[in-house]
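Incident log, entry 3
Record: DNA repair protein (256 residues)
Problem: checksum mismatch between cached and fresh output.
Input:
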Amino acid sequence: MTPLMITLLVVAGIALLIAIGYMNHVVENNKLEKARTKVELNDRLRRCGEITETFPGQLMNPALKLLLTRLELNVCQRLQNLEKNNAALKARIIELNALVAQGESLPVNNPPAPIQTEAKAKDVRFLLEALHGQITRAAQDGFLPTNEAKRWIREVRHILVLLHIEFFNNLGQHSLQQGQPGQARLAFERGVQYLRKQQEPQIYAEQLEYLEKLLARVNAQVMDQNAPAEDEVNQLTSGLKDVEADADWKKKAIYD
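Fresh output:
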């Protein structure tokens, strides 16, 4: 065997080792990417289910329900490509396809959940943030057309405003029931200020007028409550003046 042949064999062996190492690297990367994708899709599936099941009924509508169903179906179908033998996933896909086929006639069974506390308002806001993320990711994946995704992003923002309107109104009404007009005034003021800061306040002109009327009414109640207190202060001031005048008279009598 000539030195040239030995050199070629060594080079071939090295090349083979490099190729095997590269193939192993590719296989491992594919496994890691598949595992990462499965984790991500399962997380998105969980979030879709959470939004669908727990979103307040008064803020849910058939169009939004259909969108959530479509998003969940898309994730399930992508997950099925990675878990072809998952029977539960296959059954869920059949169920979701049947719901999507109904269009906006699909049932909306979410019960109303009044937004009466700040904690509840935050919970629903987190759901809206999760929905925003699902829409954005679906657009990035090419599942939702850009125009449709933008329209739904605007709708999410609109629902967020409705959430705040309900919260401030309920908070103010509850304070009135508890005989706390001062706290009610604060809640209605926050609602009015929030609506006035919106980019398109004309959309919420009716709600703004409603909150402004409530604010004016409760402000009058607060003023009425303060009026007796002012009278008492005036009577006290008048009494103190009488005492001071009497003291002055006594001083004059002593010094005279």
